[in-house]
Amino acid sequence: RVWNRYAPANPMARGAIVLQALRVGLPWSMLSRQSTAVDLGAATGPRGIAVRVVEFPLEEERKIVVEIDPETGYILRSRGIQRMGARLVEFATVYSDFRKVGGRVHAAREDQTAAGTPTGYSIIESIEYLDTLPDSVFAPWESAGRVVPMDVPAA
Predict the structure, then answer these.
(1) Which residues touch 146 (CB under 8 Å, ≥6 apart)?
(2) Partner of 103 at 20 to 30 A CA spacing, among 2, 32, 146, 154?
(3) Distance between CA atoms of 89 and 62, rounded to whole angstroms?
(4) CA dihedral over 24, 59, 11, 78, signed as positive or negative
(5) Residue 152 region, left (φ>0) first, then alpha (ψ -120 to 50), else beta?
């Protein structure tokens, strides 16, 4: 189940949440789904850069399309596409301002759109890579002294 605040999410909100979760962990999402990847070939991506386009089908009504710079391997854009009846809704993120920290590269800027309309941007000012993650990262409500069952919304 997917919740939106204190009620079960409607299909559109559920799809947006699923696509957002995949986008946040995009390299891992791609790696774990490589057996289902569909190479769509070359195209022109953000800012006129030649890209390789790879599609990852998720569920019947959902897929993610990734545009990769073949020279650097950087992901330049991701597009989460969801079918709602006869309509396709696209949630896209353009990644830019790539920086190297601790031997790893990340996009310091992300520009988001929904159905072609700009919805916002994110700027990563600093980043820290941990060798291990404490259990509290996966259950933040426990550190607040609350236990929230997965199928019941918090009050």
Answers:
(1) 154
(2) 32
(3) 10
(4) positive
(5) beta
The DSSP output letter for 125 is: -
Measured CA distances, 38 to 82, 86, 93 (Å) = 17, 23, 20
- Tokens at 141, concatenated: 């409500």
Cα(46)–Cα(67) distance, integer angstroms: 9
pLDDT tens, 69-118?
999 999 999 999 988 888 888 999 999 999 999 888 999 999 999 888 99
Q: What is d(CA 139, CA 148) in angstroms, rounded to the nearest whole number?
A: 9
Distance CA 5, CA 3 (A): 6
Instruction: Report pLDDT digits (tens) over 16-42.
Output: 777 777 777 788 888 888 888 999 999
Q: Which of 57, 56, 124, 117 minimizes the C-alpha distance to 92?
A: 117
